[in-house]
Design goal:
alpha/beta; six-stranded mixed beta sheet; 21% strand; two-stranded antiparallel ribbon
């Protein structure tokens, strides 16, 4: 049991800390698996949380001046699956450039896999699908009352999806 677990009952479940504790922890991987399966209708095989949450790691991160300076660029929950990568963010208030930031994390992960390695035919072969879910504590989409939206690459003229399911962006409004 992590130091501070007994205090978790007093933490708001929509706080970054509680969000990371529940979804960003390999001990609770079944919760994250269900989360991904329910939102994206995929089975996350061999799911592993990158940089799992722990009180010790969180304290070290906060005390690290360089890490604290870089804090705005770190995903709340990051995981890898056999066939794809996953990112999840909890955003309770709409901030500046929210739309851009909600795309930045998954796109950064997608292009971050591109590396030229001697002896490989193509650096593009390293690219993998990315699934990203933004959990929102505010009303972002005002045209209707849908609480969940999943966006993918799409041709609106032909009403067709992109041939490969590469980029998946989800928005779930808690309201």
């Amino acid at each position: 049991m992590d130091e501070g677990d007994s205090q978790l009952q007093y933490v708001n479940p929509t706080s970054d800390l509680a969000f990371k504790k529940v979804l960003g922890n390999n001990e609770n991987i079944h919760i994250l698996e269900g989360f991904i399966k329910d939102f994206f209708s995929i089975t996350p095989e061999d799911l592993v949380v990158e940089n799992p949450y722990s009180i010790k790691a969180y304290k070290e991160f906060i005390n690290d001046k360089e890490g604290f300076r870089l804090r705005p660029t770190i995903s709340d929950v990051a995981a890898v699956m056999r066939f794809a990568d996953y990112r999840s963010e909890l955003q309770l208030r709409k901030g500046y450039h929210f739309d851009e930031r909600s795309l930045y994390y998954p796109l950064d992960k997608f292009v971050g896999r591109y590396r030229v390695v001697q002896g490989e035919d193509s650096a593009y072969a390293r690219l993998r699908p990315v699934y990203a879910m933004n959990i929102l504590g505010f009303k972002h989409f005002t045209t209707d009352d849908d609480g969940l939206r999943i966006f993918q690459l799409y041709n609106p003229v032909r009403n067709k999806k992109f041939p490969k399911n590469i980029l998946n962006f989800g928005y779930f409004e808690l309201l």
